[in-house]
Amino acid sequence: METPTASDVPSPEAAARHAAPQSVNTLIVGAGQAGLATSYWLSRAGVEHQLLERRETLGGAWQDRWDAFCLNTPNFSLALPGMPYDGPAPEAFMLRDDPISYFRHYAESIGAPVRTGADVTRIAPAVGGGFEVATTRGSWRARNVVLATGGYQKPKIPALSAQLPSPILQLHTHSYRNPGQLPVGAVLIVGTGQSGGQIAEELLAAGREIHLAVSTCPEAPRRYRGQDLLYWMMQLAQFGPGYGLNGLTVGQLPSPAARFACNPLVSGADGGHDIHLRNLGRRGVRLHGHLEAADDGDLVFSDDLPERLALVETAFYQRLKPMFDSYIAATGMSAPEPEPPRRDDWLPSEPARLNLEAANVTSVLWATGYRLDFSILDIPVLDEWNYPRHHRGVTEHPGLYAVGLPWLTGHGSSIVAGVGRDAEYIAQHISENQAQNIAAR
User: Fold this and answer.
1) How many Å apart are CA 62 and CA 168, to the nearest integer?
2) Is residue 351 a contact partner of residue 343, using CB atoms and an 8 Å limit?
3) Buried (b) or exposed (e) across 308-336, using 16+ Cβ within 10 A?
4) PANTHER family, per this entry (predicted)?
5) Average pLDDT rounded to a whole number, residues 217-225
6) Looking at residue 437, what is its pLDDT?
7) What's residue 12's pLDDT?
8) Quick one: which of 34, 56, 104, 438 has the most CB atoms within 10 Å?
9) Are 233 and 323 within 8 A, CB to CB?
10) pLDDT value for 7
């Protein structure tokens, strides 16, 4: 009898893929904040479940952020079910590695049944009901599947990136780590959401010359009427509907596209502060309009920069401020009087066309956000935005759920402070269905 060689012996991963499917009542795909919150509530309901995490270590997407990344939400907002923040600095802002430790500790404290390094590759209906789930480490049969992969799945890079000269280093913020990663020369940052703003300040402090393509993400005060911006958003999201204030619920969005609108431009760095684009311009950042085209080493920007700056500066006062003021009045809370709007007439004078070589631009950072990716689903349940069709996270396909997506039920659905409410509802739905199935036998 021949002794098998090493090449004849299948790897553990290959052996797992060919093994008989494992069975579980509920599979949670993703062990970030949404998956862990769902696990907490399922455990309390006595529902058997398993979390599958594609990364080798816990900590969610926070592990993908750059070296000096700082949370833009205060520590008091780290409030997963059963473990509110109880540290000494509720108004401070954690650096990247601290929330990673927080989520790992949370998973351990709730006894979350997690398998890491298990990348789900396909979810399909099973014969007789439930789901067949294929992963890189074996297959599963489950009565229910909860999609908890979050809203930041695939970096979004504009198609015109292919038109930039090949010597230019192009990085999405997902791959950016620190200023030393970039070649000597000027940097173009495309996008002024929270990542674009924070990285612009970091590169400016490092002495880099920066060009900044301005998007329409709204500026906002870090603090308003004595509290952090997020405090009012959390209060309004959780208690506002009880006072008839529904502005941060999904039903008040003007269109489905608004689910993907960017968050207010604020920073948690250096203790937390506002970011004002005109201030960046005064400090030497070259401000441009929206990047519209690339033409043989020339970039063309929209010529509406004054209007664009005015739009981002007034959005808070037109939308969020009235909601906050109405909430304070409705609840009778004691708060300082509203601050007057910030006024600034400074304007940049950059042309609408930029020659990359003449400006010595050697790198481009795409701060253009992420897109949803549910390509693992072999189930026709997605709308034209690749967003699951659902009601409160219960999708149109029986047994399939979603949690942690932007504006699933409201503004707080994708942040740590709000994901627990959606997760609780989904866990309750699963538990009630399980009880009905048992009673029907």
Assistant:
1) 27
2) no
3) bbeebbebbbeebbebbebbbeeeeeebe
4) FLAVIN-BINDING MONOOXYGENASE-LIKE PROTEIN (AFU_ORTHOLOGUE AFUA_4G09220), FLAVIN-CONTAINING MONOOXYGENASE
5) 96
6) 78
7) 53
8) 34
9) no
10) 56
Q: How is domain 13-153+372-440 classified at the CATH fold level?
A: FAD/NAD(P)-binding domain (3.50.50)
Instruction: Give the three-state DSSP class for 107.
Output: helix
Q: Give residue limits of the domains in the chain.
A: 13-153+372-440, 155-370
CA distances to 175, 193, 291, 414 from 218, in Å = 25, 8, 18, 19
Q: How far apart are CA 420 and CA 10, in angstroms?
A: 41
DSSP bridge partners of 95:
70
pLDDT digits (tens, 9 = 90+) for 91-117: 999 999 999 999 999 999 999 999 999
Residue 173 has pLDDT above 80, yes or no: yes
Quick check: helix, strand or coil at residue 240? helix
Residue 28 in this model has a pLDDT that exceeds 50 = yes
Closest among 364, 422, 390, 428 to 175, alpha carbons compared: 364
Residue 221: which residues within 8 A CB-CB, separation 6 or more? Answer: 229, 266, 274, 316, 339, 342
CA–chain centroid gap for 89, Å, is 24
Token pair of 61 as six digits: 């997407």
User: What confidence score (pLDDT) does residue 435 get?
Assistant: 81
pTM, two decimals, is: 0.93
Q: How far apart, in whole angstroms, are the C-alpha atoms of residue 437 and residue 434?
A: 5
